[in-house]
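Notebook, bench 3.
Goal today: get a predicted structure for Methyltransferase from Quillaja saponaria so we can plan the truncation constructs. The sequence was checked against the plasmid map this morning, with no discrepancies at the termini. Length recorded as 250 residues. Pasting the sequence as submitted so the record is complete.
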Amino acid sequence: MEEILERMGEDPRDLKQEQDAIEDVAKHLCWKKVIEKNDLAIWQKHINHIECINSRKVYKMPHICKSDNPDAAWYKNMETCITPLPEVSSSDEVSGGSLEKWPERAFAIPPRIVALLKYQVWVMNVVPAIDQFGLIYERGLIGTYQDWCEAFSTIPRTYDLIHASGVFGIYQDRCDITVILLEMDRILRPEGTVIFRGTVELLVKIKSITDGMRWKSQIMDHESGPFNPEKILLAVKTYWTGEATTQKQD
């Protein structure tokens, strides 16, 4: 190997220094080397962070992140620290649950989505606040963060039902609610439904816009009764097409 590098005009000592630097970084990150052949090395992340936490007595940097919410990744400055894995009770326990080996893993059910087996539906929990992800993932559900003043990252006509709980109370002072409703119209299938929750004044405003979008909607009382100030607007996107135009003949 050294002879090849010399013929290529590279100093083997430079490569050795570079490799040593990479290994030093990997050890600081609590990775373990699983195989090495010539100048190729494969490193693997540990199944938990028990050894990593103990190794901070030797490796002071990078430290374990002290953030209360490791899932907060949007609109947040990056830190020079190691994101901690979920806590375990023993060194051989896999943080977050063990996975099947390949190729069985391609067809196995991951530990975090077992809760979806009870119902034959596909649910995407869309949250406007990043710190709510823990409530979703730890229950075996899936979700995504969405700023409704921006476009939703999906193709048109993807969803059958949207449950908009408190959405417009958050965004009504940030952007035009018409833009949000048009985006919901884009991602909702024909005859799909949206459940809006809010005050009567807000729901009346939403209804006036959805009526112009040819949705059928109705305002009704909250599940707890008519004395609850929060009301419900049930809106259904109708299936319609533009009228055919006829060309006049001279």
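The chain has a mean pLDDT of 81. DSSP finds seven helices and ten strands in the chain.
Flagging this for group meeting.
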